[in-house]
Amino acid sequence: MKRRTCIEGQTHIFSPEVMATITGHRIRSVPNLALPFPRTAEVSVERVSEILGVSTRSVLRLVQAKLFAAYSPGGPGTMTRIKFDSLVEFCDNLRLAAGVAPRKPSPKGLRPRADDLLPFSLEDTITTERVMDVLDCGKTLVTELIEAGTLTAYKIINKPSAPWRIDVRSLERYMEKLRAQAAATSRQPATAR
Predict the structure, then answer these.
(1) Which residues are CB-contacts of 85 (< 8 A; sequence separation ≥ 6)?
(2) Which of 14, 139, 154, 189 has its CA 20 to 30 A from that of 93?
(3) Which residue blocks in 9-162 are alpha helix, DSSP H?
(4) CA–CA distance, 40 with 49 (Å, rounded to integer)
(5) Contact, 83 vs 68, CB < 8 A?
(6) Cα separations (Å) of 44 from 48, 62, 69?
(7) What fold is seen in the domain 39-116?
(8) 165-167 and 153-154: which strand pairing?
(9) C-alpha to C-alpha distances, 9 to 24, 31, 104, 168, nearest whole angstrom
């Protein structure tokens, strides 16, 4: 088994037996100095912020809520490193909660593309306020349409005050349904009274 070994202040990664044969020096084992997860498996708070479309402060709140596997090498207030797989799992759970189809598996050995993580891309989302403007209605109706499954949406944080991200295509389908309903009622002859 290969181990980190220290010879005269320098760290080498060889088996202790090989190092003893090569140098003839007495070898002292160094404790496991590996980070909690490899650098290749981590992502910065800033990058998670870009992927999720939220502030870095929101990402740090998600870390504090233990929704991501993360560590800060210098303690609180220092650069936090997030395990990419925990971000993928978080986004997969968002998809599940929103009733959106699972993402396509990544090619073997490759990370999923950042654009494929969220239930639908940020470009395909619309805010609750914008839906209220389009439908000329209040927030209560928009929330009811989401809860009924008429509008597909998700929240990054499951709190009543957290904003919904609504799939613009689901709003377009709903608008088409309203137009069809209006067309059907306008074609019906008026009944005599």
Answers:
(1) 41, 69
(2) 139
(3) 16-23, 45-52, 56-64, 84-98, 128-135, 139-147
(4) 18
(5) yes
(6) 6, 13, 12
(7) Arc Repressor Mutant, subunit A (1.10.10)
(8) antiparallel
(9) 15, 14, 48, 60
The β-bridge partners of 24 are none
pLDDT tens for the 193 residues of the chain, in order: 444 444 455 554 555 555 555 555 555 555 566 778 888 889 999 999 999 999 999 999 999 999 999 988 877 667 789 999 999 999 999 999 888 888 888 888 788 888 889 998 889 999 999 999 999 999 999 999 999 999 999 999 888 888 999 999 999 999 999 999 998 887 666 665 5
Q: CB–CB of 69/76 below 8 Å?
A: no
Residue 76 — φ and ψ, nearest 5°? -55, 140
Residue 157 · residue 62 · CB < 8 Å: yes
Domain ranges of the chain: 1-34, 39-116, 122-187
